[in-house]
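Sharing a chain and its predicted structure for anyone who wants a worked example. Both blocks are below, sequence first, tokens second.
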Amino acid sequence: MPCLNLTPAERKDKRGLAHHLDPVVMIGNDGLTTAVEREVDLALKAHGLIKVRMFSDERSTREAALQQLADTLGAAAVQHIGKLLVLWRPPEAKDKPVREDRKAGPRMVTIVKPSKSATRRPTVSKVKVPGNQRVTSGGLIKRARPLQRSAKKRSPA
């Protein structure tokens, strides 16, 4: 995978967002291994923008590791400052399944309530529930709660 290229303005924005982040992956004495690459890939999938701490004293080794990570994972090398490496990869689009019964607007719901007597059949009723209401597990229809207002605004002064 080729590494991503960022414009200077995008790089500056990503550096600002990464300022308060803590390193999520640390590279020790063994250097850049496949296990480390896998962990960096998982962190990029989860967060998108990450910091990696590398405990190597040689700057050229850190620069090479940053470039190799960016190339193999298809990420952008945002910053290399001291022993911290900052990488960014755009988040993958998640396909959210669309449920037909959860669209906006009123929907028909079947409510089954058991009878008080064990010998009788349960009562079945079909109810039209508006979008701002819900059916509880007990079969009751609850309205959306109104916004809570402060006591000062409720009482006229």
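Comments welcome. The chain is about 30% helix and 25% strand.
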